[in-house]
Amino acid sequence: MKGIVLAGGDGTRLFPLTLATSKQLLAIYNKPMVYYPLSVLMLAGIRDILIISTPSAVPIMRSLLGDGSKLGLNLSYAVQDEPRGIAEAFLIGADHIGGDSSALILGDNVFHGAGFPELLRRTRDTLDGCTLFGYSVADPERYGIGEVDAEGMLVSIEEKPARPRSNNAITGLYFYDEQAVEIARGLTPSARGELEITDLNLAYLRQGRAKLVELSGAFNWFDCGTHDSLLAASQFVQFIEKHQGERVGYLEEIALRMGFIDAEACYQLGAGMRQSNYGRYLTEIAYALD
């Protein structure tokens, strides 16, 4: 399975924070926002990942993350020069995906919950068609909403419905089989000239091969597109790390736990940042997990 992080857009809802930088380079507590979606793909066992961003942000992303080899990954980069819809990621990333299945995650989404790595890998291994992830919200009229049957198969998807049929907001994490690129190529742009991800999902729904996994219980999801949600995500990560002792989105630790790198590599990555709490934690955890 190939991975894509879509980290484009102008971030206009976050002005003036994003007047001079990409939204996905802003901090969520103690690390850049892009670390969080990238960590999700890593937890799913995906190592071949394309990061799509704006012309100005791609060089900075490359400087931050490199080619991924230090993390046991293969990272590549592509430009989306204008926001033309989420589904355009499959046209931009067609060569990257090849004939493989793919997981797409939006660069401003933060996920956290017990058993999430196992859920991701199970979804990857049993994928048939497309699998979306739903999260119960109090204001479903603001989101794309998925309605499911008793088996978890999607029966309807509506964008910002006036009368929602459920509270399951479709999050910015999507798993697709090898047909995604072909389907995306056949989509008709919306009135705004965008290739809508909902249209791609509806194509799978019409095939009877669209599933929604409901993220419930103590699960948390943040779409960090506003000042309030950016702050809420930062406060959440701070609480988890300070009060529960769990680290969220530490790419080096995840690479070690997933077997992408060894303890010495993790230690050296931490030693290079030893002046920070982030770096010191990596040096401490490296051999504790060995």
UniProtKB/TrEMBL annotation:
Belongs to the glucose-1-phosphate thymidylyltransferase family. NCBIfam families: rmlA (TIGR01207). This is Glucose-1-phosphate thymidylyltransferase. Signal peptide: none annotated. It catalyses: dTTP + alpha-D-glucose 1-phosphate + H(+) = dTDP-alpha-D-glucose + diphosphate. Its EC number is 2.7.7.24. GO terms for molecular function: glucose-1-phosphate thymidylyltransferase activity. It comes from the Bacteria. Residues 2-237 form the Nucleotidyl transferase domain. InterPro entries: G1P_thy_trans_s, NTP_transferase_dom, Nucleotide-diphossugar_trans. Keywords: Magnesium, Metal-binding, Nucleotidyltransferase, Transferase. The gene is rfbA. Pfam families: NTP_transferase. Coiled coil: none annotated. Its cofactor is Mg(2+). It comes from Sphaerisporangium corydalis. Catalyzes the formation of dTDP-glucose, from dTTP and glucose 1-phosphate, as well as its pyrophosphorolysis.
